[in-house]
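User: I've been going back and forth on whether these two constructs are worth ordering. Before I decide, could you fold them both?

Assistant: Sure. I'll take them in the order you sent them. The first construct and its structure tokens:
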Amino acid sequence: MEIQDSKSTLQVIPRNNEKIKKIWKTAGILLAITVAEFIMAFTMDRGLLLYALFIILTIWKAKYIMMEFMHLGDEVKPLFYSIIVPLIFLVWLLIALAKEGTDIFMMRW
């Protein structure tokens, strides 16, 4: 029977600088989009343009997060589009329902 050391042997692989650069690039892009949204929130007047920009930037961030963190950027494009296109139609549906709801509310008065 062999006696084992109580110390664990841990092999450290060398740092992969390419992966580290990709992580920092991703964090930088998401930070830049978030800072742009933050600046727009406090400098622009409330209105359709601001809301449209927020929706576009939010969808862009969601797309980028899906491509990088869920690794869909390396997958087949139909799989990617099967997730993004329904999201765009869902946002369009919410906007259309909100518009129709306000129009119906205005017709009742």
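The second construct, handled the same way:
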Amino acid sequence: MPPVVPPFLVGLIVAPLAKRLLKPLVRGVVKTSVGIALEVKKAAHEAGENIHDLAAEVAADMVAAQIASDDGHRAAESTAPIGERGGVTDRAEGEGRAPKIRATAGAGAGVGAGKAH
């Protein structure tokens, strides 16, 4: 019959060995996980930029197509006889549409800047 070794003695011997062997293994797993997380974050950021660029290109194409169709519509109206223009007689010849005014984030930056909230 083998000698009986108390479990705490086994723990005293195995713990330092496990620490020496497991510490580099755990460190490698954590290092690899952080590296993968950074790569995924970088790839997601690049994909977001690509989608944003694509959306900007599509919007620009749509605006260009709308401007081209409006110009073609105006050219057809200006060549039509006066009675067939349909509503164009309200504007003088050559007068275009009024530009749209868009609010920007910095437009009201100075308003109430001196007030304490």
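Notes on the second construct follow. DSSP finds one helix and no strands in the chain. The helical segments are 7-79.
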